[in-house]
Specification:
Blueprint: H1 5-35, E1 38-42, E2 48-53, E3 58-63, H2 72-102, H3 107-120
Helix pairs in contact: 1-2, 2-3
């Protein structure tokens, strides 16, 4: 058994250095993965499309000629609807990005999912075409 205190201290420092290096690499990979996350939301007729980034911020907006026929109030409402829809889908995309770095079952991935869900909400469930939910 090695009882040299300096060797034990050096081994601990080497372990800590490797751990810090691994954490830095993970943080860089996470930053890269999150920088690539975007989500597009649109109004029902597709005349207004918005793109948001991983922070939920507006990254782009596109209008078809039909959007220009709307009143300013209608256009504002359609833009906000698109942003809201995109943000509700953001958590899933961020979850995928975080999973590529930390794995789908990690505590870090779960923390990100919880944070995005609490901030932006969950996507609304898709409705089955032709089915009236009032008669279920």
């Amino acid at each position: 058994m090695n009882s040299d205190p300096s060797a034990a201290a050096e081994a601990m420092l080497n372990d800590a250095e490797r751990m810090l290096q691994r954490r830095q690499e993970e943080a860089e990979r996470l930053n890269q993965a999150l920088s690539e996350v975007t989500v597009v939301g649109a109004n029902k007729d597709g005349s207004v499309k918005v793109k948001i980034d991983s922070t939920g911020g507006l990254a782009d907006i596109k209008f078809t000629p039909d959007a220009l026929k709307m009143t300013p109030e209608e256009l504002r409402a359609e833009i906000m609807r698109g942003v809201s829809t995109a943000r509700r889908h953001l958590g899933g995309k961020v979850n995928e990005a975080v999973s590529t770095v930390y794995g789908p079952d990690s505590a870090t991935t779960a923390m990100f999912a919880d944070q995005y869900t609490s901030r932006f909400g969950k996507p609304e469930p898709r409705k089955t075409p032709g089915k009236d939910p009032r008669h279920d």
